[in-house]
Amino acid sequence: MPHVIVKLWPGKSDEQKRLLAERITEDVMEVFHYGEESISVAFEEVKANEWREKVFEPDIVKKQSHLYKKPGYGIDDL
Hints:
Elements: E1 3-8, H1 14-32, E2 40-45, H2 51-61
Parallel strand pairs: 1-2
């Protein structure tokens, strides 16, 4: 706890994913004061032509109350 899932289009390298996972882990540790052993990070690749159906509609449009950063907006625009 916590488990962070990053959904993204295919094409990023394993090295890019490792780097992002490291940075997410570091930030979670700093902000929430969890130990590294408590944090997990996963990546789910979603094809661009499936993004609206599999990510945008169910995770963004239908769960707007859960978003702390909306697409196209800065954090302060919420």
